[in-house]
UniProtKB/TrEMBL annotation:
Transcription regulation as UniProt keyword: yes
Species the sequence originates in: Brevibacterium jeotgali
Lineage top rank: taxon: Bacteria
Protein's name according to its UniProt entry: Transcriptional regulator, TetR family
Family matches, as PANTHER family: HTH-TYPE TRANSCRIPTIONAL REGULATOR BETI, HTH-TYPE TRANSCRIPTIONAL REGULATOR RUTR
Region of interest (Disordered), residue spans: 170-193
Domain (HTH tetR-type): residue spans on this chain: 1-59
Portion annotated as DNA-binding: 22-41
Bias type Pro residues, positions: 182-193
Keyword hit for Oxidoreductase: no
GO molecular function, one term: DNA-binding transcription factor activity
């Protein structure tokens, strides 16, 4: 593991503990002096951006596991729903909220990485778009609730919620009466598992 990776892991641990993301806290958690940390991340702002990039890329890897090869926009949304409801989520997954002064920049960075996965690029009727958005909002709620530790569902209860959210993403029937390509039964396992 590189020093940079150790610093980013230390920053995630700081966030998991609910502590403010400061250079001192991250240096301590990473086993470095503050000057040692500043050698890699000149400012708290540079560190915060790197942490959000790190978390967003971790999410992207997970989403790709759930979506499989060449996913459609609906399959990407379904992967997002599965990820938020089945993966280990904690306070570090809210890294984009780590610095209020940088919130616009951090949210834009998060959005630029994950926007293809949240259903906004799906070409659909207003009614279908509303269903996709409702499913996405359920996923967002699961992400925030799980990251904050607000609600603790049993595995079975969360599986039921996942099934309902995924049912909102079943594509409309084709003219021949066949379900669309994303009408496959819901699964909480990554593609290829």
């Amino acid at each position: 593991m590189t020093t940079r990776d150790a610093i980013l892991d230390g920053a995630l641990e700081v966030l998991r503990c609910g502590d403010p993301l400061t250079l001192d806290a991250v240096a301590s958690r990473a086993g470095l002096t503050k000057p040692g940390l500043v050698h890699h991340f000149r400012t708290k702002e540079v560190l915060a951006v790197a942490v959000v990039e790190h978390v967003a890329l971790r999410w992207l890897d997970g989403l790709r596991r759930y979506a499989g090869e060449s996913p459609s926009p609906v399959e990407r949304l379904r992967a997002y729903i599965r990820y938020t409801m089945t993966e280990d989520i904690d306070a570090s997954d809210l890294a984009l909220l780590a610095d209020a002064k940088l919130s616009v920049q951090l949210v834009a960075l998060w959005d630029s990485t994950l926007s293809p996965w949240i259903g906004e690029v799906i070409d659909a009727s207003p009614a279908d778009r509303a269903r996709y958005r409702a499913a996405r909002l359920a996923a967002d709620g699961a992400w925030f609730d799980r990251a904050l530790g607000v609600v603790s569902f049993s595995h079975d209860d969360l599986a039921d919620v996942l099934e309902v959210a995924l049912s909102l993403t079943v594509e409309p029937q084709s003219p021949g009466g066949e379900p669309g390509p994303s009408a496959a039964p819901p699964s909480d396992r990554p593609a290829g598992s």
